[in-house]
Design brief:
- This is MutS-like protein.
- Keywords: ATP-binding, DNA-binding, Nucleotide-binding.
- InterPro entries: DNA_mismatch_repair_MutS_C, DNA_mismatch_repair_MutS_core, DNA_mismatch_repair_MutS_sf, MutS, P-loop_NTPase.
- This protein has 445 residues and is α/β, with parallel strands linked by helices.
- It has two domains: 176 residues, Orthogonal Bundle (MutS, DNA mismatch repair protein, Chain A, domain 3), CATH 1.10.1420.10; 199 residues, P-loop containing nucleotide triphosphate hydrolases (Rossmann fold).
- 52% of the residues lie in helices and 13% in strands.
- The longest helix is centred in the middle third of the chain and has 27 residues.
- The chain is elongated.
Length: 445
């Protein structure tokens, strides 16, 4: 069972790298093999939606993190082995009997697979790995492959010894034809192990916490010390939701940190469903069917849709998923920002009230329309939090720390004036620069 999501959410949370910045995937990707990188990408693309599997994966990584096990294989062995195995596929595609690899490359591929088989056997038989009960299914699968009678000659072979031409030919037939599927299964297990060990190192180095997955449908989210993992100097927050407060209405001025906070929480929820450690000090969550965020929704020029209509279609999509009785985590940042204040007010209130009745799902709605918040106070199931702004003279300062309630902070015009935009328009660039210098001098007096 996998968590439902979509491209908009993947883009909002910056799961994968953009041209100008790294993604969340890169933060967790410290794998040693190309195969492991592909496995990790698959995990990020398809988070889990099963409580038992999420907790099992989390416990495996946590156990590896606690004993500080390193990846025991040489990456160069995988380069040789993968090239060697792929050569057979290339030969089939070309429909040619001509050998793609020379004798030396075949010998190198055979030797690398023999070494990998010996090394993985030693690893899974070690006392530390044998003691990790959560890893038992993977460990048993590896041992089951290794004890196959077809691999008995391989395990009797001495590592790093020069093989005869006849032995290389026999092993080549075994590895690339007779038992190819078992070799691929074994490599897949090693790639998965590479992912576990590399993510365990991320958890250890960054002091991330391993969340606990709870049963689906209880609308429980408990986060302590949560922050966005890509920030160099993050401010952490405590945040919680439950069935009695399954909607949070979030307010705050421009630049107060609303979007960053929404990304921090939704990133933690997303990554927790992969079974990975998150940027927090504590986390418990009820398993969800899906997560949908709307933080940076673009106009859909392909269908001639305005920003407002794109927002309407987004809400419609979420409504359809909710009507299917799915447990969802939904975020809307500045709902209906693409229309006039009156319509945005009415739409925000009506949609938020409807969301609050879906007790098996959780919602965070951010808004500048504080009047909508005042109306929503009359409804049960809705909590109110804000990110404050402290004015130091004409300069706003932001704490980035959640507080309970609704704020009417609006500092857009202050920021516009502080940047000297009106003076540029009135007096030109030169006088605006003089105005900025005068302000700076006044601030130091």
């Amino acid at each position: 069972m996998y968590l439902l999501t979509d491209e908009q959410t993947i883009e909002d949370l910056r799961i994968f790298a953009r041209r100008d910045s790294q993604g969340l995937f890169d933060l967790y990707n410290h794998s040693h093999t190309r195969g492991a990188e592909n496995v990790l990408k698959e995990m990020f693309t398809r988070p889990l939606s099963d409580q038992e599997e999420i907790n099992r994966r989390s416990c495996i990584i946590k156990a590896f993190s606690s004993i500080d096990l390193r990846f025991p294989f040489e990456p160069a062995l995988f380069d040789m082995a993968e090239k060697y195995l792929l050569a057979a596929d290339e030969q089939k595609k070309q429909g040619s009997q001509q050998a793609v690899l020379g004798e030396k490359e075949i010998a190198g591929g055979v030797s690398s697979l023999i070494q990998l088989i010996h090394q993985v056997k030693a690893f899974v038989e070690s006392r530390e790995v044998a003691g990790i009960q959560w890893y038992s299914p993977e460990r048993d699968a590896i041992i089951s492959l290794l004890i196959d009678t077809a691999f008995e000659p391989v395990l009797r072979e001495q590592q790093h010894t020069r093989l005869s031409y006849a032995a290389i030919t026999a092993y080549d037939l075994l590895f690339r034809q007779r038992e190819r599927h078992k070799i691929e299964q074994l490599l897949r297990q090693i790639y998965q192990l590479d992912v576990y060990l590399s993510v365990a190192k991320v958890a250890r180095d960054r002091n991330f916490v391993f969340p606990t997955a709870l049963a689906k449908g209880s609308s429980t989210l408990i986060l302590k010390g949560v922050y966005h993992p890509e920030l160099s100097k993050p401010v952490s927050n405590d945040f919680s939701m439950n069935a009695d407060r399954n909607v949070v209405f979030l307010t705050g001025a421009n630049m107060a940190g609303k979007s960053t906070f929404l990304r921090a929480v939704s990133t933690a929820v997303y990554v927790a469903h992969i079974g990975f450690p998150v940027a927090a000090t504590e986390m418990e969550f009820s398993v969800l069917d899906g997560i949908y965020t709307t933080i940076n929704l673009p106009d859909n020029l392909g269908i001639g849709a305005s920003h407002f209509y794109a927002e309407v279609l987004r809400v419609k999509k979420v409504a359809a998923e909710l009507e299917a009785n799915k447990s969802l985590f939904i975020i809307f940042d500045e709902m209906f920002r693409g229309t006039n204040v009156k319509d945005a007010h009415e739409g925000t209130v009506e949609i938020t009230v409807a969301f609050a009745k879906k007790k098996n799902s959780m919602f965070i709605i951010s808004s500048h329309i504080v009047e909508a918040g005042e109306r929503l106070k009359q409804e049960p199931g809705i909590g109110f939090q804000y990110l404050p702004t402290i004015m130091k003279g004409r300069m706003p300062e932001y704490t980035y720390t959640l507080e309970d309630g609704i704020t009417a902070d609006r500092h857009g015009m202050i920021i516009i004036r502080n940047e000297g935009i009106l003076d540029i328009l009135k007096n030109g660039k030169k006088r605006a620069g003089e105005f900025d210098r005068a302000q700076s001098l006044a601030a130091t007096v």
